[in-house]
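User: Predict the structure for this protein chain, please.
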Amino acid sequence: MRTIIQTLFDMWVDGQPGEMMKKQNEQKELLYRKYRTLRSKLPPELVEELDTLMNSQMELFPVELEESFSEGFKTGVKLMCEVFKEDNLPPIEDFNKRL
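Assistant: Here is the predicted structure, written as structure tokens:
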């Protein structure tokens, strides 16, 4: 079962704004062209090594991205807890009365 943070990450990935996705796709395309250029210059035995290396890297990327999102989210929550603790804010009921 996925955690709440993992579910939020999935929602974040699925909801990426169009402009951001367009820029990421352009960057991916540029990197892929550079990879293809390098690959075409290599002897066959090194092509296989490069492909294995690139496949391994591609398998790690989503895991690293999810872990980074999770750690960033947790850090943000800790920061919020620290701010609320240090500010001695009134109870939430006081805020609700104002609404």
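Residues 46 and 52 are 10 Å apart (CA to CA).
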